[in-house]
Structure formats: C-alpha cells, structure tokens
Amino acid sequence: GRSCVRLVSCLFPVFICSYMFLAPVFGYLGDRYNRKIIMSVGISFWSLVTLASSYTPKEHFWVLLLTRGLVGVGEASYSTIAPTIIADLYVKGKRTNMLSIFYFAIPVGSGLGYIVGSQVGQLAHDWHWALRVTPGLGLIAVLLLLFVIKEPKRGAVEARPEHHLHQTSWLMDLLALSKNYSFVLSTFGFTAVAFVTGSLALWAPTFLFRAAVFTGERDPCVEGNCAASDSLIFGAITVVTGILGVASGVQVSRKLRTRTPRADPLVCAAGLLLSAPFLYLAIVFAQASTIATYVFIFLGETFLSMNWAIVADILLYVVVPTRRSTAEAFQIVISHLLGDAGSPYLIGVVSDSLRKTDSFLWQFRSLQLSLLLCSFIAVIGGGFFLATAMFIEADRNRAENYVPSGH
C-alpha cells in the first residue's frame, strides 16, 4: 500500500545519504592505509547493523532509520576501495575483464535482492527475515578478504612502484581531480545512470502493478505488498540484463578500442542514448501490453547496464594510483547526491503533483508521466559521455606519464 511505499521512500534516502557522506572518509583512508583491513572492518560493521535492524520494534522507527543509515558504512568502505585493489592487481585488457566481473555484482545483487527479499518475506510472513539473510553472506566476504586477498602496492603493477608515487595533500588531490575533465564529465554521465536506475528500482514494480490494475489484468489492492510478483519479475530482469549489459559493454568497448582510443566513453554514450527510447516505449506501452512493457524494460536496462564496468575503468586510467580511492569516493558522492538519492523522491513528488484524483486511473497515469523523466535524463547522460570522449586521450596520457612534483 501507500504506507509501504512511503516507508521505502524514507529508508532509501537515509541509506544513500550516509553512504554518500562516508565515501570521502573511506576514499581518504583507502589512499593512505591498508585497504584490506578497512574493507573487512566496514563489511563486518555492515553485517552487524543489518542484522540489528531486523529486530527493531515498530514503536521505535527511529532505530530502524539509524541502523539503515549505518549500513552505508559497509557500502562506502568497499565500493570506494575494492576497484582500486583490482586496478593494482591487473592492467589494460585484463583489468577491464576483472572490473566487469566485479560490477556484475551491482545489477545481479540488486536483482537478487528483489527476488530473495520478496520470497523470504512471503515465506516467513515477516519482512524482517529478508534482512537476516545477508549478514551471513557478509561474514563469508570478510573471511575471503582476510585469508584469500593480498594487499597490493599502489601502482606496482603499472611499473611505477609506490615509493615513486608521493602522497599529496587531500586538498591538492581534490584540485587535481576537479581539473580532470574526463573524470568530471564521466561522473556526471554516470550520475544519469544512477538517476534512472534509482527511479526504476523503487517505482518500476509499483508502476507495473498499477498498469495491470488499469488494464483489468489484476484486482485492486491497498494492503500488504501488492507488487510482490512484479518485484520478482523485475528482479529477474535486473539480474539477466545486468549480466548481458556489463558483458556486452566490455566486449563492444574492447573491439572498438582497436579503431579509436575514445571507445570507452563512446560505448557509455551509446548505452545511455539507446536505453532512452526503450525506457520511453516501456512506460508508454504499459497500458496496452504487459509483455511489450517487459520486453522494452529488458532492452532498456541491458543498454543502461553497459556503463558499469567501463565507467570504473575510465576513472582508473585517467587518475593516478595515489588518488584513485578519493576519486571513487567523489564519483559516488556526486552520482548519488544528484542521482539515486533524490530521483525516487522526485518521481514520487512529480507523480503526486500530476494526480488529479485518487482513482486507479490517475494513480497509474500520474506515475506514468513522471517516469518519462528517466528517458530525458538518459539522453543528457549520453551527452556527458560524448563530451568525455573529447578529453579522454589527453587525460589518459597525463595520468600514465604523471611525474610527482615533490613529497
């Protein structure tokens, strides 16, 4: 019902905001201290607060808000640092392959979250159990980090040992990043991806359910998790499109690199620009054909997912090793602050402002019109990646031939 959507709308920004503001802290630490230990502590803390949040009583909603906010500690610790470890273990084509495997986790993990969360909640007749599954997986991740992963030296694999790469002050790092046009423009392009994925993650299942009610395929529902089956289908689509999108993006980029050094931003731009019309068609066709809607969502999300690994690779080769964690952190801050931290709320506000009555017709129609915003944002994001292509060669050469000015 509407109260459930309000609950999710409230919890999601709390998590994203804590994640955003903690990312620069872990970016600073990740460029200076043992990254494996920092990630292990972060993930352990994340697992504990996730488990704790499942036991909060109804009358203490603020405790649930607090624990969901603290989950951002774990997210910020590994999302800022893990790609930099991969960058220090592999170079060039192999690095891109390893990053693609790492970034499968984003769409696949979020898709499995829909599936496991909705099914566990239904089987246990209690949504709290959905939060008790993941801490065990977090424990496994910590053990693998501590006993399997080795801490590489920063920049060692690029034949530039760590003692030749002097640390600079944090303010100097930020100033250098702000002048790195490829980093700045690709970050804004990725923000568009975050905006669209955040909007779809929260609103797509609800929209699909309202479309089914509008067409008479489903009975109206006002209590409980009305869109559970839609969440299951949308989750499965997210998993499959994530795998296809990330893999195809990397393969297309690899082939195009033999023709142009601007291949990566061009593939990212193509992914966003191609996703826009399919997302538009998915939203418009919802009232005519459910099958067509799912097909267009599938195609739109596949093209959207082409960006994940490539954007990470761009950051790693246009930024010097001693600034990569900081760069990752600020890409997270910008993309979430202007992207998925506010996009679900914005879609909801626009939908409410367009709704003339509380009828099922207007519940569907207002949400349909507000979701069309995603297509326009995707086009803008594609424009940022096209602009990135203008600077990518110069910024990459500057990073590869970086000579520190002093200690």
Automatic annotation (TrEMBL):
* MF-aspect GO terms: transmembrane transporter activity
Cellular compartment(s): Lysosome membrane
Q: What is its main location?
A: membrane
Q: Reaction catalysed?
A: a 1-O-(1Z-alkenyl)-sn-glycero-3-phosphoethanolamine(out) + H(+)(out) = a 1-O-(1Z-alkenyl)-sn-glycero-3-phosphoethanolamine(in) + H(+)(in); a 1-acyl-sn-glycero-3-phosphocholine(out) + H(+)(out) = a 1-acyl-sn-glycero-3-phosphocholine(in) + H(+)(in); a 1-O-(1Z-alkenyl)-sn-glycero-3-phosphocholine(out) + H(+)(out) = a 1-O-(1Z-alkenyl)-sn-glycero-3-phosphocholine(in) + H(+)(in); a 1-acyl-sn-glycero-3-phosphoethanolamine(out) + H(+)(out) = a 1-acyl-sn-glycero-3-phosphoethanolamine(in) + H(+)(in)
The processes (GO biological process) annotated in the record are: lipid transport
Pfam families with a match to the protein in the record: MFS_1
Task: Name the membrane topology term.
Answer: Multi-pass membrane protein
Asked if Kinase is a keyword of the record, the answer is: no
**Does the UniProt entry include the keyword Transport?**
yes
Q: Supply one GO CC term from the record.
A: lysosomal membrane
**Start and end of every Major facilitator superfamily (MFS) profile domain?**
1-393
Instruction: Give the UniProt keywords, A-Z.
Output: Lipid transport, Lysosome, Membrane, Transmembrane, Transmembrane helix, Transport
Q: Which PROSITE patterns match?
A: MFS
Q: Which SUPFAM superfamilies match?
A: MFS general substrate transporter
Q: Which residues cross the membrane?
A: 6-30, 61-86, 98-117, 129-149, 181-204, 232-253, 265-285, 291-317, 329-347, 367-392
Which protein family is it in?
Belongs to the major facilitator superfamily. Spinster (TC 2.A.1.49) family.
Protein's recorded name:
Protein spinster homolog 1
Q: Which organism is it from?
A: Sparus aurata (Gilthead sea bream)
Ranked from the top, the taxonomy reads: Eukaryota, Metazoa, Chordata, Craniata, Vertebrata
Q: Which gene encodes it?
A: SPNS1
